[in-house]
Amino acid sequence: MLLEALYHVPRDKWAYAYDPRTIHLRVRTKKNDVDTVVAMTGDKYDWDSTYFEITMEKAASDEMFDFWEASVLPKYKRLTYAFRVTAGTESIYMLDSGIYHDCPAPTGGYYEFPYIHEIDVFKVPNWAKDAVFYQILPERFANGDAENDPEGTQPWGGQPKTDNFFGGDLKGVLDHLDDLVDLGINAIYFTPLFTSPSNHKYDIVDYKQVDPHFGDNALLKEVVEACHEKGIRVMLDAVFNHCSELFPPFQDVLKNGEKSKYADWFHINQFPARVENGIATYDTFGFFGNMPKFNTANSEVKQYLLDVAEYWIKEIKLDGWRLDVANEVDHHFWRDFRKVVKNANPEAYIVGEVWSDSLSWLVGDQFDSVMNYPFADKVLEFFNGGMDGATFSNRMSSLLMRYPQQTNEVVFNMLCSHDTPRLLTRVGGDKRKLKLSVVFLFTYMGTPCIFYGDEVGITGGGDPDCRKCMIWDPKKQDRELYDFYKMLINLRKTHKALREGRFRFLKADLGNPCIIYERADDSIHFTIWMNNTDQKQTLSHPMVTTDWRDALTNEKVMPVNGTMNVTLDPFGYRILFRNISK
């Protein structure tokens, strides 16, 4: 065994309370290096009568490591434990105090989980596990009220630019809620709605007023009430890293300089605050001088923004916040933000915009979830032919091992957004590849999100081209693609196993881009078969049971001599299921 590859620490994603009675343990070993890992567990005060062993499951593997996992229900909410790792005839023992060839007497030097305090358990909103989100850029979704159109509004459906307007508003959303219900949507993520000079509204002037081009506060409240009546949750965008240069406190700084009472609300590096040769003398979002960065460590700034977060939850019964540029705001702020938001609505869903490994925000004191851009990148690289099945399995399994299970169950998965090219464009216009990607999205762990219009075939490159107007003329929509999305959404919503069940790759080989994976719980077992090639393929996998059916047609599908053989068209897929006898 390569002892240097062994890893476990009694915290974070390696040892955590999943619920008030259950502790999850994980261990890392070199890939294909050990046969078994056994968790040796008991109570430190009564080891002999509480001792029990759990053989850990190999839950995932990446290019270099295997990850082993076990779920433990300690008798007294506390746990003392060690690991016995075996390869062939050799066994070693992993303890907090080190690695040993002979098992030290318990419990000195063993790992400890001192006590499951319910207040410390990382709780995520249960409804987010069942949610299918739909991201709406309000300016481009639907123009329901021409009276509030900005000056110079262009005809609907024109070429989007960084600074043009098409008149989309909240009345347009209200008019089309039944369309979202028909699709199967039960949650909406709105990009910013508050007063702002831009079409995207990420440079906010007034955080407590709906932009008049969209409507007013009363209309937003009406929209949210209508959504709730139709079973749709609503999440708004919180832009708390920066504001607009027209934000009144920043205007005061521009006018009064160091004497402004708001001088410490921002990160001013040199007075007067100005932009010279394209670079501001104050910190900004990126290098955009029109978006000065807040000093969220300032107590007045913090209170102002926390009041905003609480105000909208109470005012419109908001269900969640998506946090823009979340990784550039200090952790102290987000810890207080979580307390304020969860106190106002314990079931509020908090999603941070972080584009990389986000564990430091996902240990229970800040976010519930993050926008899972690494998911989108890996999925689209795979279905665009950029890697084989083994590499894809390794990389997706590595993603699953980044976070505790409760986060994996609600991590915000999408295949594109307002910040990326459109999905159909990202797969080279090939609907077959799009469908494989969407099947994976809806049969994978986490909370799926659709960017408005992807379901009817909207294309587009990077910003601003991805922010095209929604197509409402049925003759111009891809209705076959719409029906496909609707079918997949319904399948996911119908079966809990596709939302919370175990995920595991069954077949993912070197040099072969075809994959088979499963989702399963105690009631139902799904297997998903994918041909990620441009040639017809027959995939095979051992299966003893003979009660499999096609999940989309209910047709019986029988193995032959203990092997299931599934023939798939180029870039084809099939979803099979069987009910598990109790």
Main β-sheet description:
8 strands, parallel
Across the major sheet, the strand order is: 20-19-18-15-12-11-22-21
Number of domains: 4
Number of strands: 30
- Residue windows where pLDDT falls under 50 for at least 5 positions: none
Average pLDDT confidence is 97
Keywords: Glycosidase, Hydrolase
Protein name: Alpha-glycosidase
Pfam families: Alpha-amylase (PF00128), Alpha-amylase_N (PF02903), Malt_amylase_C (PF16657)
GO molecular function, one term: hydrolase activity, hydrolyzing O-glycosyl compounds
Which helices and strands appear, and what pairs or packs with what?
Elements: E1 15-19, E2 22-30, E3 36-42, H1 47-50, E4 52-55, E5 57-61, E6 65-72, E7 79-87, E8 90-95, E9 98-100, E10 111-113, E11 133-136, H2 170-175, H3 177-183, E12 187-190, E13 194-195, E14 206-210, H4 217-229, E15 233-238, H5 248-256, E16 275-276, E17 279-280, H6 299-316, E18 320-323, H7 331-344, E19 349-352, E20 369-370, H8 373-383, H9 389-400, H10 405-408, E21 412-414, H11 423-426, H12 431-443, E22 447-451, H13 479-494, H14 497-500, E23 502-508, E24 515-520, E25 524-530, E26 537-542, E27 548-550, E28 556-557, E29 563-568, E30 573-579
Parallel strand pairs: 11-12, 11-22, 12-15, 15-18, 18-19, 19-20, 21-22
Antiparallel strand pairs: 1-2, 2-6, 3-4, 3-7, 5-6, 7-8, 7-10, 8-9, 13-14, 16-17, 23-24, 24-25, 25-30, 26-29, 27-28, 27-30
Helix pairs in contact: 6-7, 8-9, 12-13
Question: What does this entry look like structurally?
Answer:
The protein is of the alpha+beta class and 582 residues long. The protein folds into 4 domains: 3-120, Sandwich (Immunoglobulin-like), CATH 2.60.40; 128-241 and 302-494, Alpha-Beta Barrel (TIM Barrel); 242-295, Oligo-1,6-glucosidase, Domain 2 (Oligo-1,6-glucosidase, domain 2), CATH 3.90.400.10; 498-579, Sandwich (Immunoglobulin-like), CATH 2.60.40. It contains 14 helices and 30 strands. Strands 20-19-18-15-12-11-22-21 form an 8-stranded parallel β-sheet. Strand 24 (515-520) and strand 25 (524-530) form a beta hairpin. Helix 6 packs parallel to helix 7 (331-344), helix 8 (373-383) runs antiparallel to helix 9 and helix 12 (431-443) runs parallel beside helix 13 (479-494). Belongs to the glycosyl hydrolase 13 family. Keywords: Glycosidase, Hydrolase. It comes from Paenibacillus dendrobii. InterPro entries: GH, GH13_cat_dom, Glyco_hydro_13_lg-like_dom, Glyco_hydro_b, Ig-like_fold, Malt_amylase-like_C, O16G_dom_2. This is Alpha-glycosidase.
